[in-house]
Design a protein that fits this description.
mainly alpha; Arc Repressor Mutant, subunit A; three-stranded antiparallel beta sheet; globular
Length: 121
C-alpha cells in the first residue's frame, strides 16, 4: 500500500471541502455568513435572489460538507459558519482571485467592489 492509499480518506475529505465551495451561490452564502454571526433563510433569499428551493439545495450541500450549521427557532431557520476559519479561507481566496486576474483596471475594480468579508471574530 502506498502513502496515497493510506491517506486517501483525508484527501477525500479535503476534496469534499472544495466540492462544497464549488458553486458561485454557495460562495455568496458563505460570504453572507462571514459578514454576520448568523443569517436566516429569509435574509439569504433576499440577498441572493435565489428561489427557496435552490437556496435549500445549496444550504444542504454546505451542511453535508460541514461548512455551515443550522438552528431552528420557532418557524425560522438560522445558519452560521461551522468554523470561523471558513471566513479566513474566503479572504485568502479573494486575495488569490486578485492575483490571478490580469492587471486590467476593470477586473480589479470588480474584485474591489465585492462585499467586505470581516476579520475572524
Amino acid at each position: 500500500m502506498d502513502l496515497l492509499d493510506e491517506r486517501r480518506p483525508l484527501y477525500e475529505i479535503k476534496a469534499n471541502l472544495f466540492k462544497g465551495l464549488a458553486h458561485p451561490y454557495r460562495i455568496r452564502v458563505l460570504e453572507i455568513l462571514s459578514a454576520n454571526d448568523e443569517a436566516s433563510v429569509t435574509e439569504m433569499l433576499a440577498d441572493t435572489g435565489l428561489e427557496a428551493s435552490h437556496l435549500s439545495q445549496h444550504l444542504s450541500v454546505l451542511r453535508r460538507y460541514g461548512l455551515v450549521v443550522s438552528e431552528r427557532r420557532a418557524s425560522v431557520v438560522y445558519y452560521r459558519l461551522a468554523l470561523p476559519q471558513i471566513a479566513e479561507l474566503l479572504r485568502v481566496a479573494r486575495v488569490l482571485l486578485g492575483e490571478i486576474l490580469t492587471d486590467a483596471d476593470s477586473q480589479r475594480a470588480l474584485v474591489e467592489s465585492l462585499p467586505a468579508i470581516p476579520d475572524a471574530r
